[in-house]
Design goal:
The chain has about 450 residues and is of the alpha+beta class. Helix content is about 35%, strand content about 20%. It contains 16 helices and 18 strands. The strands form four sheets. Strands 15-12-14-13-17-18-16 form a seven-stranded antiparallel sheet, sandwiched between helices. The chain is globular, with a radius of gyration of 23 Å. Bound molecules: flavin-adenine dinucleotide. The site of flavin-adenine dinucleotide has 36 residues, from strand 3, helix 5 and strand 10.
Length: about 450
């Protein structure tokens, strides 16, 4: 960035909310994709007008701007890959209003999803999207990535709960998409276009979300199976029995072995896979669903089935699921964490395909994830000190994407394209769709100053 641009930015923010110091630049130089890129400056906006002023300057001076939430993104979406200014929203994090009578809440983008739930609880409502990162990831990040998570099987994903967005365009103009009502079909749905846009079309400064009543009762069930196939068939039978769990998590043998080495969860040594399910709703209905589900599980040979009703018991079961990620890091220095999504009916084929990729390329692949919506986290485990293993790992990732697309699925169920999957988007999208998307980007951002280097392969490269 030119000195003149930095000087002008200093006049927009008080000194404690603008920095070019190496310490501050390092803190916003990485995310959960484990890449690192250094910005020229970072600012912590607190008002829509500040964001608008920044974009007017960026448009005039031609520097790049990268919106950032908590930096928990898995695809490099918030990284300043071309240098420029990071706008970190952690200080723009208020719940503006809770309107339970309208089934709505209005928030600033930097609020974490965990804080949002805490704020909403006294009003008896909750925000259903539930990425496993909810304790620290922000609402702005969830909207930009269209985060999915654990409850998507019943409640859907972030896009299903965003009612209206106040956003600053790359030109600095401020728009408010839709109305803060639960139904509106006036014109094109720009709100939906912005959800999942990965910070490339506009910067969100205020978000109205739909909320639902907190369910009366929650029950969790955990059961172990002989292998991938039996667990998947059981999951499919449960869904076919007109039972709708709010969560349906699958863990393969590799995940269970890693977790057992990490902590003693009492996982039976012979377990070849596991399903963790959760039901919510009216107390009598939930008890009935859980009971019917236990029957289906036992028909599919589930062993050591545990039923958890209190918050503490349920938390214990979820700790097992949440421990997989940290446990995998102890298994190999690098996990190439992919999040493909396939039709639920083709899960068994997908898992068999991933196993054969693993055998063919001699790389360890460990699978777990959201079986209820076909979104599997495929972890290709590699040691980067072995260049050939690293190369085979990346080849395995390509083949995993190809397999998912062949089965009618997607290369990313919830983590987004960012800068890590740009080269693979054409596996899934036709040239016409890609061109339409590029054209939309140009309409919003003709100068290419907002979050450049994301989603699309740069023209000419
Ligand atoms: C342990 C762990 C578990 C996870 N589990 C899940 C899961 O279950 N489901 C799931 O979907 N994801 C999951 N994720 C991925 C990640 O947490 C989500 O993508 C999350 O929504 C990112 O939020 P963030 O605040 O960290 O955003 P960041 O990583 O900071 O940014 C993500 C994107 O949002 C954009 N952005 C941020 N704020 C704004 C704004 N105000 N306006 C416009 N664009 C903005 C950024 O430019 C970037 O493109 C997990 C990550 C971790 C580390």
């Amino acid at each position: 960035m030119r000195k003149q641009a930095i000087d002008k930015l200093r006049s927009v923010f008080p000194p404690q909310r603008f920095s070019t110091s190496p310490e501050d630049l390092i803190t916003c130089s990485y995310d959960a994709s484990r890449q690192e890129f250094r910005a020229d400056a970072v600012a912590w906006p607190q008002t829509t007008d500040e964001v608008s002023e920044v974009m007017r300057l960026a448009s005039l001076e031609g520097f790049a701007v990268y919106p950032r939430g908590a930096g928990s993104g898995m695809s490099g979406g918030a990284l300043p890959v071309r240098g420029g200014l990071v706008l970190d929203f952690c200080k723009m994090n208020r719940l503006i209003e809770s309107r339970p009578e309208d089934r709505l809440a209005v928030c600033e983008p930097g609020i974490t999803l965990g804080e949002l739930q805490k704020w909403l609880k006294p009003d008896g409502v909750f925000f259903p999207p539930d990425p496993a990162s909810h304790d620290f990831s922000t609402l702005g990040g969830a909207v930009a990535e269209c985060a999915g998570g654990l409850r998507a099987v019943k409640y859907g994903v972030t896009r299903d709960y965003i009612v209206s967005i106040e956003a600053v365009l790359p030109s600095g103009e401020i728009i408010e998409t839709g109305r803060t009502v639960l139904k509106s079909v006036a014109g094109y749905d720009i709100t939906r276009l912005l959800v999942g846009s990965e910070g490339t079309l506009a910067i969100f400064t205020k978000i109205a979300v739909r909320v639902l009543p907190i369910p009366e009762k929650v029950i969790a069930l955990l059961g172990y199976f002989a292998g991938d196939d039996t667990a998947v068939k059981c999951a499919q039978s449960i869904l076919a029995s007109r039972i709708l769990p709010r969560a349906m998590e699958f863990m393969d043998r590799g995940s269970l072995e890693c977790v057992s080495r990490y902590r003693d969860f009492g996982i039976p040594g012979e377990a070849g896979s596991a399903l963790l399910l959760e039901f919510d709703g009216a107390a009598s209905a939930v008890a009935d669903e859980a009971e019917r589900c236990e029957d289906v599980m036992s028909k599919h040979g589930a062993s050591n089935v545990r039923r958890a009703e209190s918050d503490e018991e349920r938390e214990e079961l979820w700790t097992l699921r949440r421990s997989i990620s940290p446990a995998l890091f102890r298994h190999a220095p690098i996990k190439l964490n992919e999040d493909v999504c396939v039709p639920i009916s083709r899960l068994s084929e997908a898992l068999a395909g991933f196993r054969s990729i693993s055998e063919r390329l001699s790389v360890d692949i460990i699978n777990f994830g959201h079986a209820g919506d076909g979104n599997i986290h495929v972890n290709v485990m590699v040691d980067e000190r072995d260049p050939d293993e690293l190369r085979r790992g990346h080849e395995a990732v390509r083949q995993v994407y190809e397999a998912a697309v062949r089965l009618g699925g997607s290369i990313s169920g919830e983590h987004g394209i960012g800068n890590v999957k740009t080269g693979f988007l054409s596996l899934e999208l036709s040239p016409v769709e890609l061109e339409l998307m590029r054209s939309l980007k140009k309409v919003f951002d003709p100068k290419g100053i907002l979050n450049p280097g994301k989603i699309f392969v740069e023209e000419g490269s």
